[in-house]
Amino acid sequence: MGAEHSKNPEAIEAASLLSEQERHDLTTAFRQLVSPDGKSDPDAHATFDVISLQSFSRKVLPEDVSRRFHQAICEKSSQVDRDLADRDAFTISVAHITKGNLEQKCHYYVRLAADYRKGVSPTPSAPHLFHLVCSLITAALNSRALNPRVNVWGGSSQDANAKLARTMLDEMIFLKHPKEDRRVAVSFYEDPIPDDVVFSCADLEKWLLENALMPRLFDHIFRSLFFAASDLAETVTDGGVQQLPLLPELTGTGGEESLLDAAAVLYLNSYLPMGCRQHWCQVFDSKQHGQSFATLLQKLEKVGGQSLLVVRDMEGYVFGGFASVPWTISSQYQGDNSCFLFSLSRGMGVFMAGDYNNHYMYLNHEMETLPNGLAMGGQPGYYGLFLDADFGKGHSHAEPSCTTYSSPQLSKSKEFDIDRVEVWSLTDAKDRAGTSHGSVLDSNAEVQAMMEMVGKPMSGVYEPVDEKAASGEH
Asked: Which of 19, 237, 244, 333 has the highest local Cβ count within 10 Å?
């Protein structure tokens, strides 16, 4: 990027953050900005204006965002005309927004969110930040690199993107005002965006430390703009740190459109363990395989590792949970605290396990003394999510919240009728092929349960706790 010829210490240091290929790509981008027709080679004093940047980035960034980015670049410029961006300023800005530390990144993030006067620190409001986040989500999902994967997930809609942006904004509001109940976040989407809440750089830094998706969106968008070798759909290594694709590769759907759209997958994927983010294979869909609990159990046998359960009730609510271990029939609870429940209706919410109990996962079938069905969180009769073995019925009781996941009621009604169920294996096919756990129907679960009940107490055996009493409700 010509940094070796620069006398600007900040530009030299910024260029050192970039690889040789990235510096080459940035030089190419600068030439296109200075001379879009390619008829002239920029010299050391070459500059570009806001119109050039807006034209260059028009397929990725809205005009107001690219205009603010140009203004932020010009702050670093040595030109007398501060409406023109020079080579050093461009190097510093792109290097910091893609490869800089948290403080350097936040310097640009707040400037992209809202208009501000030169020399005055910007303080974007909640509506400003919502617009920026929604623009980045839309840009990522509409990008040429991700487009094939977006399409197989049912495409990208402005409503779905706005719902995800609102969810991310509400998480930031919660961090700024922690007295607000986190469970309420899933209903914020229906409320007006508060225009009296403003954010500082410190607020944004705190949010980026908590939110895994936001810095990745920024990184991928600006990499796709300026670094030709970047591909949003591929796994790349940046300084020894593996950057996984935003959307997973999808197999096993049989051509059916999933309950999950691209925005929902983008959101859920950011909460999954790193090894679960690249390949999703659908192993069960009640639309294809029928509404049968026995069939569901047979399909679960194929999952040799982690999985994602997705449910839609007859009233249109979509929700589910992440299972950290293979589902097996047992009278004991299974899984660990990496399991979570989620809601995709009203707003979006992921609800991680707390330390009240270890009732992460439960699966039982054809037993007389214990509940028959699939459950996650809570207690018998008061599960956070329960699918009855008599397939078609379920419940989500949270009064006021599930004791395991602190989740609210996920379905529209406490007792619900099932419209559709999907199960996704999140383990790579080659790993599943080498893993054999036996059928979930092979063991004599009734005998095992009775042995556990008459023998020594075992970790995970039911503790009959009244869910209402446990949650403090009378």
From this structure: 333
Looking at residue 51, what is its pLDDT?
96
Q: What is the pLDDT of residues 16-39, one digit of tens each?
A: 999 999 999 999 999 999 988 766
Residue pointed to by tokens 């209402």: 468
Residue 84 and residue 33: Cα distance in Å, rounded? 12
On the question of pLDDT at 3 being above 70, the answer is: no
Inter-CA distances, 473 with 398, 420, 466, 468, Å: 10, 32, 10, 5
Beta bridge partners of 288: none
427 with 287: CB under 8 angstroms? no
For residue 242, give both structure tokens: 């593996």
User: What whole-number distance in Å separates Cα of residue 136 and Cα of residue 431?
Assistant: 34
CA 331 from chain centre, in angstroms, equals 33
Looking at residue 303, its amino acid is V
Contacts of 230 (CB under 8 A, 6+ apart): 220, 223, 224, 236
Stretch (H or E) spanning 180? none
What is the tens place of the pLDDT at every residue in 392-433? 899 998 878 899 999 999 999 999 999 999 999 997 555 544
* Owner of token pair 């501060």: 82
What are the tokens at 423? 């199960």
Query: Which 3-state string (H, E, C) describes 330-387?
Result: CCCCECCCCCEEEECCCCCEEEECCCCCCCCEEEECCCCCCCCEEEEEEECCEEEEEE
**pLDDT tens readout for residues 436-449:** 444 444 444 433 44
Per residue in 75-117, pLDDT tens? 988 776 778 999 999 999 999 999 999 999 999 999 999 887 7
